[in-house]
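Reviewers of the previous submission asked for a worked example of the structure-prediction workflow described in the proposal, so we include one complete record here. The input consisted solely of the amino acid sequence. No template or homolog information was supplied to the procedure at any stage.
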Amino acid sequence: MTKKKDKKLKKKLKQGKGKLKPADIVSDDSAIQTLRQKIQKLKAELEERDDVIGRLQKRLKKAESKSGKKGKKEKKPKGKGGAARLLRAQQSTRIGVIHKEAWKQHGFLRNRYEYYMEDGRDKETARALADQDLRNAFGDEAGYTKLELEDILS
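From that input alone, the workflow returned the following structure tokens.
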């Protein structure tokens, strides 16, 4: 009968439901041990949460100090370097435009090459015709040599 009682007590402790009578709690060493284990787990959880809180507070302080530094930098009067910043901004957009244009030309060349290959032309003729179409569409600067065409359209 005591085994049944122990099982019921353990079940109640695990579920956390119902109230235990003081006589039930003191009656068995296993119940006391489970309560101590539960207390240890809760203490460990509290320590972990305290650690997390401490780490988050440190991160908050670092973020606040960084944002404070940025605010000080913005308050400085603008001096030399405005032209350099403007030049850098223009170059980055130019580079982006150049890359976009190069991909557009490459895609056009690839499409024309595939068109001529599907039309039944041999590789050399298809490459030459695709290059000619590229030069007609984008200008003579956009054309490639035979070796470059072979590397690109292999």
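The first helix runs from residue 2 to 15. We consider this example representative of the routine output the project will generate in years two and three.
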